[in-house]
């Protein structure tokens, strides 16, 4: 059996499972806030800039949204999805979904910013997993065929 083939197969399966796990975590968090969280209308009041994370030599900016909770508390919260180029203008009205137990846990819903990366992550995870699993199955079947042929004396000897 080809040890490097097994190693690559296992690595691909693990990468696929990690991507699928991250995708499931993102999906469950996003959908929980969207369906179970509270909705509020807010206004973008600025950006919080993270200098640690960069994309194409640009800092990542996270919108700061001012909104009023269902308990009439006015909050400024940082949306957890950041952008290399600001997506919202200061003063722009946005709909936010927040955790009622922790109103600073805020998402601003956008299909493009949430579900496209999620679909890509799950798609890449499935491809890696299926490619690795198919390779491992092919190697295992090749071993079974080799053993069966060797018992019948049909294996070429070097």
Sequence-ordered SSE layout with sheet pairings:
Layout: H1 3-36, E1 38-55, E2 58-68, E3 74-78, E4 93-99, E5 102-108, H2 111-152
Antiparallel strand pairs: 1-2, 1-4, 2-3, 4-5
Helix pairs in contact: 1-2
Structure description:
The two termini are 16 Å apart. It contains two helices and five strands. The radius of gyration is 24 Å and the shape is elongated. By secondary structure, the chain is α+β, with helices and mostly antiparallel strands. A hairpin with a 2-residue loop joins strand 1 and strand 2. Helix 1 runs antiparallel to helix 2. Strands 3-2-1-4-5 form a five-stranded antiparallel sheet, covered by helices on one side. The longest helix has 42 residues. The chain has a domain of 73 residues: Beta Barrel (OB fold (Dihydrolipoamide Acetyltransferase, E2P)), CATH 2.40.50.
Key terms:
158 residues, alpha+beta, OB fold (Dihydrolipoamide Acetyltransferase, E2P), 5-stranded antiparallel sheet, elongated
- The fraction of residues assigned to DSSP E strands is 25-35%
Report the mean per-residue pLDDT as an integer: 80
The top-level CATH class of one domain is Mainly Beta
| Poorly predicted ranges | none
Shape: elongated
Q: Give the strand line-up of the largest sheet.
A: 3-2-1-4-5
What is the gist of this entry?
With 158 residues, the protein is α+β, with helices and mostly antiparallel strands.
